[in-house]
Amino acid sequence: LDLTRTKAGSPLHPLDRVFLPIDRPLMLWLNRYDSQWFTTLMWFVSRLSTVAGWLLLTLIYLAIRQDITATLIMLVASGLGVCASVALKIIIKRPRPWITISELAERGRRPYDPSFPSGHTLSAFAIAATMAVLDPPTTGLFMGFASLIGLSRMYLLVHHVTDVLAGAVLGVLLAQGYLTALTWTGLLSSH
Question: Global pTM?
Fold first, then answer.
């Protein structure tokens, strides 16, 4: 394992030099499991974590729970997650897994924007952590869905495992900061 160069011979990104010994074996293990139906399911789950998907899910939440405040706060949490992940990707610029791990299969469309952190996962966990405070009975549902989104991003081989883990941690931290700011400003009562 060369921890200094990509498969194309260019120098490795600093995060790859640190995390590739962890990511590579896990990604190669995921690479071994290739099922057409599971790949289709994972692409569907992954698509649900786009802006359109979150809008649809928040409208379903609103229709079921009829809580406009929680719904709006959830949408803002999602938007903050997108903004945070885009900003971090621009700054960090970690390449996608197939650029550094040549053995990875192709499971559909390969995005070429930077990989770290997983934006889908960051937004999903920002929403899940927000809803854990606003509507505790839904915690399992939202955390389970956020975890499934993270799994989809790894299974589809579009993110390193550490990209997904970082997205989950950053999403929870972002939600905590967001809810604290709402509470401090009086826009949200203490939960």
Answer: 0.88
DSSP single-letter state for residue 186: T
- Residue pair 180/186 in contact (Cβ under 8 Å)? The answer is no
Spatial separation of the C-alpha atoms in residues 139 and 73, rounded to whole Å: 15
pLDDT of residue 33: 87
pLDDT band at 51 (very low <50, low <70, confident <90, very high): confident
Name the nearest CA neighbour of 50 among 23, 99, 85: 85
Question: 61: number of CA atoms within 13 Å, CB side?
Answer: 25
Instruction: Name the residue with tokens 């809803």.
Output: 131
* Local structure of 78: helix, strand or coil: helix
What is the 8-class DSSP label of residue 138? Answer: G
Distances 69 to 9, 41, 50, 74, 108 between C-alpha atoms, Å: 52, 31, 21, 9, 37
Q: What is the pLDDT of residues 155-173, one digit of tens each?
A: 999 999 999 999 999 999 9
| pLDDT above 70: percentage of residues in the chain | 94
Please give the torsion angle defined by the CA atoms of residues 23, 99, 107 and 156, in that order, rounded to the nearest 10 degrees: 30
